[in-house]
Specification:
Oligomer: single chain
Order of helices and strands: HHHHH
Strand content: under 5%
Number of helices: 5
Shape: elongated
Largest sheet: none
C-alpha cells in the first residue's frame, strides 16, 4: 500500500474503499465462475436460451473484473487475486455439484442479488468518502446486476401476476 497518494481521499478512506471493492471483486469473480460453470453444464428444454444467457452474463462479469481490480490499485492497494482469498471475501458460495436448470437459475438470481447488496455497501463507503470514480463504477454495476437478476428471475415465474 502506498501512503504517498494525494487524490483528495484520506489514507483511511482509501483503505476502506479498497476493502469494500475487494469484496465486490470477490463476489464478482465467484459469480463469474458459477455462471461459467452453469453455462458449460446446463441441460434440458431451455438449454440453448440459458446457455446463451449465461455466456452473456459471465462475459460481462469477466470484463468487469479488471475495472474493479484496477480501481483498487488506483487507490493505492493491492487487489486480491487468488481463489482462496476470493472464497474468504465472497458472500457467494461455490456449487460443488451440477444442479438442474431451475436450480441453476435460482442460484444465479441469489448470486446476482448477493452481489448487488455487496456493491450497494461499497457504494455507500465510496460515496461518503467523495470518491466519484468508485461510486460511478459501483452504480453502473448495480444497474447491470439488477437487470441480470430480473432476467433470470423471469425464468422462475409461473406466468401469474403478483
Amino acid at each position: 500500500m502506498s501512503s504517498n497518494i494525494n487524490i483528495g481521499i484520506s489514507t483511511e478512506d482509501r483503505a476502506n474503499i479498497a476493502n469494500a471493492l475487494s469484496r465486490v471483486l470477490a463476489d464478482s469473480y465467484m459469480l463469474y465462475l458459477k455462471t461459467h460453470n452453469f453455462h458449460w453444464n446446463v441441460t434440458g428444454p431451455m438449454f440453448q436460451t440459458l446457455h446463451i444467457m449465461f455466456m452473456e452474463q459471465y462475459t460481462e462479469l469477466w470484463n468487469a473484473l479488471d475495472n474493479i481490480a484496477e480501481r483498487i490499485r488506483a487507490l493505492g492497494h493491492f487487489a486480491p487475486g487468488t481463489y482462496a482469498r476470493f472464497v474468504e471475501l465472497s458472500s457467494i458460495k461455490e456449487e460443488a455439484g451440477v444442479p438442474n436448470a431451475q436450480e441453476m437459475i435460482r442460484q444465479l438470481v441469489d448470486g446476482q442479488e448477493a452481489l448487488i447488496r455487496t456493491v450497494r455497501e461499497a457504494f455507500k463507503i465510496a460515496d461518503e468518502a467523495n470518491d466519484q470514480p468508485s461510486a460511478g463504477m459501483l452504480s453502473d454495476r448495480m444497474e447491470i446486476h439488477e437487470k441480470n437478476a430480473w432476467m433470470l428471475r423471469s425464468f422462475l415465474e409461473n406466468g401469474q401476476s403478483a
